[in-house]
Amino acid sequence: KHFTEYQIVEMLSIIGLYGFFNRWNDTLATPLEDGPKAFAEKTIAKAGWTPGKHET
Prior knowledge:
This protein is mostly helical and 56 residues long.
């Protein structure tokens, strides 16, 4: 057994919270902040990433 029941609940809670954030930001097309956008453009744009509807 690798994790206690409490740790499993904590992990699933965080996963659920970030899933909610993802859907919320996608639905509202939340604009990206300059820092995260610049980082993504520098690191993953060459793999095809674009800000899409989150462009400011």
